Amino acid sequence: MIVRKNMGRAKSLLTLLMVLGFCFAAYNLVAMIIDHKTIGGLGVDGMEYLNGIVVRSTNSNRKFHVALTSTDAPYSQWQCRIMYYWYKRVKDMPGSDMGKFTRILHSGRGDQLMDEIPTFVVDPLPEGLDRGYIVLNRPWAFVQWLEKADIEEEYILMAEPDHIFVNPLPNLAYGSKPAGYPFFYIKPVENEKIIRKFYPKEKGPVTDVDPIGNSPVIIQKSLMEEIAPTWVNVSLRMKDDPETDKAFGWVLEMYAYAVASALHGVKHILRKDFMLQPPWDLHVENTFILHYTYGCDYNLKGELTYGKIGEWRFDKRSYLSGPPPKNLTLPPPGVPESVVRLVKMVNEATANIPEWDSLNRS
Question: What is the pTM of this model?
């Protein structure tokens, strides 16, 4: 009787262990499938995308350092203040893999925001080398920061002052494969003649050059350390070539990063949900960064009047010499949600950032 009872208990225990083992195996299988799906496949336009499934990791090595390059001009300063405000608001929310934050200031000297925003001062390019194209300082700034700074995180998000975090941002990179945003105006294939000056045929097809810029990109720090010097060199070579300079214009440095990455054999996971750009992107939804690079002009009926100053407008270039005022007027009815969200987020930041009206004026 006792033997049978013990045997029964043993069988029950064995059954329980088998069930637990099955559940554990099933969980791992599902996790592997989700993980595989997260890598994504080819979109209808032939570019690689994630399909929107984000697997959160409790591994601290997945944290990324938020880094943006900046000057000490008032125009750049007020954007950095808004950007840093929203970084702090979303950093510790569920779904975020955000680590520490650095404004890489490439003016060669500190400014009045040093105590407000974590800042690392680096030197600009030697005088005249940027030829008035100040963005060329960006790759050089990253080279210096990567060489001299103590960066704890294994990944880096390259961001810009006119970025606002609208949702907590997870690490969209996958191992040594960085994540980037596909810009509709970066077209390596259509510019193959020019691209081949810097990415020769023996390196591979021109499709190896991703349709991206350096920002936003989440990338392993070790990979960035390899790419950054090449990015500097390609940028300067492109600027020195009249045909390339004329063709690429204000996006030249973006093409340079794309080419530099390809020269190192690096392909990016292309995430359309990484960023939205009003007024063209109408909804925020599950995107992560709002990029307010374009002017938003509307008539009072809520109709876009792009290229013509609207009866209602928000354009960052209206505030070159100082910050926008607090409590901006909201857009008229009918204006897309993305534009309304932008203005509301700017208003919240300016209402809560100390000394908003007195700092950052030229």
Answer: 0.84
